[in-house]
């Protein structure tokens, strides 16, 4: 589903790669934590998956597509298959909960009827059915993050990328967010989450990939946060997140090194990429049913670290010397290991599957949408690179006012021709690429609590 082959990313003007020869594979249905000190490369990793940026060398396949082969014009369509959640929520402050979530569907041209069904469903799933009319500032931080998650998954993305989604939340609120993410994962969505939250990682016992200065030093199934990352976290002063939350307990028992299944050969470029709609109503309904069923069922950079070479997915990951849990890895392939005890609200945990999914290149069901899409598509080279947004096929909604320019993401070099991104407004279809911004503050909003 996500595969990195010898991927290196070196930003312009820097000598040391942010990611250094990364080889890994993430299967469909997996829940993966990315851990590591600040600056270790977690966000760079997520940006590459989203095709917000290009690797300096190496190849990345996502959903069966070679990202190097996706043209700029098709990037928004590719991104429809990805949902993204950020630490700072990024809701639209002037829209209520329902409209924030509906917006994603509106911009990709979903019918009013579909929206009227899908939005309540997803709000139910995240536990906000009763607060659909609230504005973001009338919600707690945890509720705002639930809205952001609902917005990210309402289009049933195959992959959910979460960049420190609990970073602004207290431990018990974070635990609730993780329960929601578990449900989404139980519905079949692959989740990749970058985090500094050791308690969550330790509690959930999912696959853990640890980065140190851009290299993978650990890849464990049912892993814990690890001492290396924790030491780096403590050194960074982010001690608040170290506190254990209510109901969060440290794991018992050894972690298991991630055992990668055999590699698959991705489909040839151009294979089945033009005929199928990106997200069919049937597929969306099917996914919605799955999510609903799941919901029902649920009712460092480390100072002392010596990075080891990133392992090949074809071989077991090296156990990290600073990770007690990894010191005695159980030689049991994790895929057959019994699942860890469920979180507060149990959700069925699906087996990851190796099934390349081919992303169609363009929608066929809405010719008008294609015209609008083309109007909203611009070359990505050299544009101010903002933040990633959930689902991304820009298509203007008639009643949607123009949006102001988004804040530039300082981490993305706008002058770098390798940088590929649309502003948040552009991704959400609020504004044509390159169109002037207005003064409304309807762009990004951080926590309001
Ligand atoms: N646009 C950029 N230009 C130059 N260097 C960059 C850019 N973006 C990231 N970097 C550098 O790349 C390295 C990895 O950064 P990245 O943001 O991926 O780390 P991170 O693990 O996500 O950090 P954090 O936990 O603080 O979010 C850092 O050294 C960072 O300074």
Automatic annotation (TrEMBL):
Q: Biased composition, Pro residues: where in the chain?
A: 259-269, 330-350
Q: Does this entry carry the keyword ATP-binding? A: yes
UniProt keyword terms in alphabetical order? ATP-binding, Cell cycle, Cell division, Cell membrane, Membrane, Nucleotide-binding
Q: How does it sit in the membrane?
A: Peripheral membrane protein
Q: Which PROSITE patterns match?
A: ABC_TRANSPORTER_1 (PS00211), ABC_TRANSPORTER_2 (PS50893)
Low complexity biased stretches: 302-329, 379-396
Q: Where in the cell is it found?
A: Cell membrane
- Source organism, top-level taxon: Bacteria
Per the UniProt entry, what are the Gene Ontology biological process annotations, in alphabetical order? cell division
The Gene Ontology terms for molecular function here are: ATP binding
Q: Which InterPro entries match?
A: AAA+_ATPase (IPR003593), ABC_transporter-like_ATP-bd (IPR003439), ABC_transporter-like_CS (IPR017871), ABC_transpr_LolD-like (IPR015854), Cell_div_FtsE (IPR005286), P-loop_NTPase (IPR027417)
Stretches assigned to the ABC transporter domain = 2-238
- Where are the annotated segments for Disordered? 253-275, 302-449
User: Subunit structure of this entry?
Assistant: Homodimer. Forms a membrane-associated complex with FtsX.
Family affiliation: Belongs to the ABC transporter superfamily.
What's its job? Answer: Part of the ABC transporter FtsEX involved in cellular division.
- Output the NCBIfam families linked to this UniProt entry: FtsE (TIGR02673)
PANTHER family hit by this protein: CELL DIVISION ATP-BINDING PROTEIN FTSE, IMPORT ATP-BINDING PROTEIN
Q: What is this protein called?
A: Cell division ATP-binding protein FtsE
**Species in which this protein is naturally found:** Herbiconiux daphne
